[in-house]
UniProtKB/TrEMBL annotation:
InterPro entries: Homeodomain-like_sf, HTH-type_TetR-like_transc_reg, HTH_TetR
Gene3D superfamilies xrefs: Tetracycline Repressor, domain 2
One protein family per Pfam: TetR_N
PROSITE patterns registered for this protein in UniProt: HTH_TETR_2
Organism this protein belongs to: Rhodococcus erythropolis
GO MF, one example: DNA-binding transcription factor activity
Residue spans binding DNA: 30-49
Residue ranges annotated for the HTH tetR-type domain, each copy included: 7-67
Coiled-coil regions listed: none
Keywords tagged on the record: DNA-binding, Transcription, Transcription regulation
Lineage summary: Bacteria, Bacillati, Actinomycetota, Actinomycetes, Mycobacteriales
Record-given protein name: Transcriptional regulator, TetR family
Length: 189
């Protein structure tokens, strides 16, 4: 019974944290607010997580694992480096649209433990992990990967943060990225 209560409480707390972040940004998250939103005591939050930062980290981390599965599934069937990067970016934007709380990661906001001057130094290794299968599948070389990762991160962040009519639909974004990334990625080969 104790483990069931603990797991249920943990899930409620993580869900409440995500709702608070989505509704009010990272500044809205504190132990008292999370406890109230989850319907548990502050002591329960402290005993499970210890700190506000750990609540935020586990909430966003759990969602990130779910989203990574969705993105990985999207890129499995492509057969060119350009298509891989295009589908990676389209899938990432789709994930942000499906989970609006992810958009808060892109906002420069006080209290956001993710967005700071070091964001690119964290985003590059993450994207590198996601794009490394291109090398394993023979779609790009190890030497090309660093520059492909750099452009994918910069374009990916841009299309998520700055939507426009020209690239609003997945098909229009796919066409836009393919048209401009295709020649750039081919020229690295």
């Amino acid at each position: 019974m104790g483990n069931t209560f603990l797991v249920r409480s943990q899930q409620k707390i993580l869900g409440a944290a995500l709702e608070l972040i989505e509704g009010g940004g990272f500044e809205a998250v504190n132990i008292a607010a999370v406890a109230t939103a989850a319907g548990v005591s502050r002591q329960t939050v402290y005993s499970i997580f210890g700190t506000r930062e750990e609540v935020v980290s586990q909430a966003m981390g759990g969602l990130a694992v779910e989203v990574l599965g969705e993105i990985t599934a999207q890129v499995e069937s492509v057969d060119t480096a350009c298509d891989y990067v295009v589908e990676f970016i389209v899938a990432a934007r789709t994930a942000v649209r499906a989970h609006p709380v992810l958009a808060t990661l892109l906002l420069a906001e006080r209290g956001n433990p993710v967005f700071d001057l070091e964001m690119m130094s964290r985003a590059i290794p993450f994207a590198g992990q996601m794009l490394t299968p291109m090398v394993e599948r023979g779609l790009a070389t190890e030497a090309e990967l660093d520059e492909i990762v750099e452009i994918a991160v910069r374009l990916g962040l841009s299309v998520v943060a700055f939507d426009s009519d020209l690239v609003h639909s997945d098909d229009s974004l796919r066409a836009f990225l393919s048209r401009w990334l295709g020649p750039a990625i081919r020229s690295t080969s």
